[in-house]
Design a protein that fits this description.
Elements: E1 2-7, E2 10-15, H1 19-28, E3 33-34, E4 40-51, H2 54-61, E5 66-70, E6 73-78, E7 81-86, E8 89-96, H3 99-112, E9 116-126, E10 129-134, H4 141-148, E11 152-154, E12 157-163, E13 166-170, E14 181-192, E15 197-200, H5 203-211, H6 220-236, E16 239-244, H7 250-255
Parallel strand pairs: 2-4, 4-8, 10-14, 14-16
Antiparallel strand pairs: 1-2, 1-3, 5-6, 6-7, 7-8, 9-10, 9-11, 9-12, 12-13, 13-14, 15-16
Helix pairs in contact: 5-6
């Protein structure tokens, strides 16, 4: 059994011979289903016959995987799963759950895109305008995405892609998301506050804050490439610090920026 999904311009074919896992995969990535050719083949094997829910799932999702690079590709070991990537293919062995697929596909997306970055942030769009709202866990990304409703493309990890003269914001499914793209008009570094307040972020501080929210590649040259991408991004897109309270009035502040 196989199904194809498109994340930005990257098309993945996911295969499994386990009917229950196939159903979970279909449901997890349903908004991103496409047909036709693909860029990479992902095969998923169920190693544990029990499923994850509640506290067990939360614990497993917050265990940071270990990564190992080699001349043939890379390997990843996380809570209850392991994976290997070779040119054009990925093998995943794990439980009856989709969280390992999320981890692996997010890292593979970074590996496949040399003119892009995966950033811990919510993507907000309005027509062709887009805002990347970034920050560490607890800063308010998911809260803001819920407030924005249909304007939110994703609430946890967003893709930023360099396309000629444009910087594009891309909706990805990690952890909740839908397809979509827009020109990136501004970056917001989020924090909670007693009222809605926005201020320009000093370039040095913006580099420090945004670098902490990057998903970095595996190889030494990936770090240099990622740093160059962040520096170019901040040179071309204005960055602000946005303090907000959880009410829809924050949209009036966001849409007036850039």
């Amino acid at each position: 059994m196989d199904i194809r999904f498109q994340f930005g311009s990257w098309v993945v074919r996911v295969c499994t011979d386990h009917p229950a896992l196939f159903k979970l995969i279909q449901e997890r990535y349903a908004p991103f289903v496409v047909h036709g050719s693909f860029d990479i083949d992902v095969t998923c094997h169920v190693r544990h016959q029990f499923s994850f829910d509640g506290p067990a799932l939360l614990k497993a999702r917050h265990v940071r995987p270990t990564l190992k690079d080699s001349i043939h590709g890379w390997s990843m070991r996380g809570a209850f799963f392991d994976a290997t990537l070779r040119p054009g293919s990925i093998q995943i062995h794990g439980p009856l759950a989709t969280y390992p697929i999320d981890f692996v596909l997010a890292q593979a997306w970074v590996d496949a895109h040399k003119q892009a970055a995966l950033i811990h942030g919510a993507a907000i769009v309005d027509g062709e305008r887009g805002w990347l709202c970034s920050g560490p866990s607890g800063a308010g990304k998911s809260t803001l995405a819920r407030l924005m409703g249909f304007r939110a493309l994703c609430d946890e990890f967003a893709g930023v892609v360099r396309e000629h003269s444009d910087i594009r914001l891309v909706g990805l499914p990690f952890w909740q998301g839908r397809p979509g793209t827009a020109r990136l008009d501004a970056i917001m570094m989020l924090r909670h506050g007693p009222r809605h307040q926005i201020a320009p972020c000093h370039p040095r501080e913006a580099l420090r804050l945004l670098s902490r929210q990057m998903v970095w590649g595996l190889r030494p040259d990936d770090v240099q490439r990622g740093l160059a991408m962040v520096q170019d991004l901040l040179a071309r897109v204005p960055c602000y610090v946005l303090a907000f309270t959880p009410d829809i009035g924050v949209w009036d502040v966001i849409r007036e920026v850039a």
